[in-house]
Every structure is written in C-alpha cells, then in structure tokens.
C-alpha cells in the first residue's frame, strides 16, 4: 500500500476527510482483537494466540490496541488543530465515546448479564454502582457472569476506553495551556516519554508514576500525535517502509523494547499505509464506521457463542464472532453512534475559544 516514491500524509482539511485509509485500518485492528481474544477465552491463556506464539511478546490484541492509540493520537490532535475550541472539542469527544459505550454497557448488563449470570442476578444487581461505573467508562459493574469459564468477564475489551478518554483530555489540556506552541510542547513530552521507556527497558529505571498501563498508552497516543504534528517533516517511501518493517520485527522479538519499537516503527508503517495512494481501498470509506461497535461487542458475543457451544474451535469462534460483532457494530452505528454524532454541529452555551 505504500507508494514507491516518497510521499507525505496530506494536510487534512474539514472538507477532505476521505482521502485516507484510517477507517479501514481501524476495522482491521478491531478484527485482530477478535483473532486474539477467541483462542484466549477458549484455552484461558495465550498459548494458542498466533502472534504470541510467533514472537512471545505482544498478542494481536495488544498490537491492535496499540494501533488504536496511535491512530487516536494522530486524529484527536488533528481534530484540535483544525478546531481549537475547548467546548466544541469536548462535546465531539463525549459524543463519540459515551453513546456507544453506554448502549453496550446496557446491553451487557440488562440483556447478556441475566442470561450469563446466576438465578439471583437481579437480587445482587446494584444500580448506583452500575451507573457510576458507566459514567467513568468502566467495564459494567454487575454480579458474576460466565462462572466456571476462562476469563469470566462481561466485557474485557472495555477496560481500555477510560484511558482513551483521559488521552482526549490531555490533548485539551495541551491545547489550552500551550496554544501556538503545542507542537513544541507535545514533541518534548513525546521525547520525554520515549526516554522513560528506554531507561525502563534498559533496567536503569522503573518509572511508572500512574501505573504501567498509563505509560504504555501515553507512549502510543503521544507518538500518534507527534506523527500528525510533524507530518510535514516525515517522508514515507518504500525504502523507509522496508527499514521500518525490519526494525519493527527485530523489536517485536524483544520483551524490553517491543512497545517503543511498536510505537516508532509500526507507527511509521501505519501512517504510511493510511496515506498511501490506493484509490480502490478508498471505496471502504463509503461504508459505515463500525469499528468501535465491533470492538465493544466482540467479547460478549464470543463468550455467548462459546457458552452455547463449548466445543467450538478457535477458527470457528473467530469467524462466528466476527459476523455477529459486525451485525452489532452496524446496529450500534445506525441506532446509536451516528444519531449522536449528528449533534456535533449543535452549539453549546459552554463553548469557549482556546
């Protein structure tokens, strides 16, 4: 997908949002989560997970989530740069994350939970706890479900969503405090995070001020944002892609340096593919953007399928989960996400200029 000559990602504008492959890449990443989770929920560990067996470092699920944060860093920083209005920015982020998440949480708690839980499910259901967790973007706080199975969680994919929203708030904070100097401030922070990653990987430090998940997700999100802010200084070429691919594979073999290599070298490949001149693939942008819904519903769908047919093979579970998760993603898009996204154009009284 990467063009033979050197090229740069196009400078986006509000009227030209379909000249890239971001939607397709998001869908591929959501599918990789299904490929990763299916054998894990069957066998209870990653011993049968394809990427883990190949490199013994990241799973396809880890790899996909890292890719999501790279893309988010790029696109959310882009969103702020195109319209640096605090109220408008926050409204867009809330409308993109919360409606689909709330709908999925309600489906998990009110429809799937009673089926997958014990007979006394409603006796132990606590509405205040559930609603408070939903507002925090936590996995639904409900009575035990899928007991006796591996990973007995109602939705083990949702745990990444709060980190995603925190990253959105960081973009807002950087935009408001650094203004026209955001590029410098963001780049310096990305370099500082990379330095911490390097010293931690080398065993010189063990610096995880907010916990290891924060550092990991911040790494990918800030690298993604830097790829956007410094896009005019980055050339994508076949030679560069081959070098990045070789270095990416090399770091994938290293438990210490795999995340930094993923952020740097896979990031280069990812954004090179996103801006590649491949007109046929642009047709995908005519389809609804269902990747978020697929991501939210794939886990409970897979758990339900396995509960109904415990002898299902990993390959069959991947295919069945994909089909049903796509159906759920379409329902989420048309019934929930798209109607709320249309509210982005409404003016709010609390909108203010950065």
Q: Element order, helices and strands? A: HHHHHHHHHHHHH
Please indicate the count of domains: 1
The class by helix and strand makeup works out as mainly alpha
Q: Work out the number of β strands.
A: 0
> What's the overall average pLDDT, rounded?
92
Count of helices? 13
State which percent range the strand residues make up: under 5%
Using the CA coordinates, give the radius of gyration: 21 Å
Q: Portion of residues in helices?
A: 55-70%
Q: Characterize the main sheet.
A: none
Oligomer: single chain
Distance between the termini: 38 Å
Structure characterization notes:
The chain is mainly α. It has one domain. It is built from 13 helices and no strands. The two termini are 38 Å apart.
What's the gist of this structure?
The protein is mainly α.
Question: What keywords describe this structure?
Answer:
mainly alpha, globular
Describe the SSE topology.
Layout: H1 22-43, H2 50-55, H3 60-82, H4 86-116, H5 121-124, H6 127-135, H7 161-178, H8 182-201, H9 212-229, H10 238-252, H11 258-274, H12 291-308, H13 314-341
